[in-house]
Specification:
15 strands, three-stranded antiparallel beta sheet, M1 Pyruvate Kinase, Domain 3, 2 domains
Length: 256
Amino acid sequence: MTARLAQVFRYPIKSVGSEELRETGLTPGMGVPLDREWAVLNARAKITRLPDGRASAWGKKANFLTGRAGPSLMAVSASVQADGRLRLDHPDLRHLDIDPALPADQEKLIAWLRPIWPEDAPAPASVVRAPGQPLSDEPEAFVSLIGAASLDDMSARAGRPLARKRFRANLWVEGWAPFGEFDLIGRDIRIGTAILRPVERVGRCRATDANPETGVRDIDMLQLLEREYDHTDLGVFCRVIGAGAIARGDTVEVLG
């Protein structure tokens, strides 16, 4: 079976909303454009907001609002509108349209998030822009990729379907054997006209316990992974090494 790119996602605000794309361009050493471009610092953050609105540095997830601490965030969806504004939706909230660069809209975002953020967690404090690199959980700009068969196998062992959106990957590939993406670490793959190199596994956290439809924890994902596979990894981080365009339906070719 020929492997193909089944879905492409980005997450404009870290942990706050997923957006599916039909196509995008990739640049060497960079992630998916606009992916984790913004984040919300919490009141205990060790990094700060600079006068130009950027984060003072890349920081670990403990500095931000995340789905691990606030599972309801996992139910947020996002879409960039024709005018460039970002629309956020949540099943328990009215939709919000904002320009994350505007201070007034940043305040609106923080107010919008408060009802779905745990009262016992560090409160949302300020919105920051990426300091020249995505505000992802890794200090290097990666594109994350998961083989769809890996999740299908997990769903079978869990006894219920597990939604792809739980795992906040950028790329989903159909046509490989379960966990076959692990065997591609250190090898190059071509998707569309872009070339990527898987470099390491993605270790999972408790954010994946939350159902992305409801924002409620309904499974212990790490326990499932450990019990069934003796590890807690799903997917791989890829480094973009060749510029190009990718689109849903593109063939995925292993180069060597």
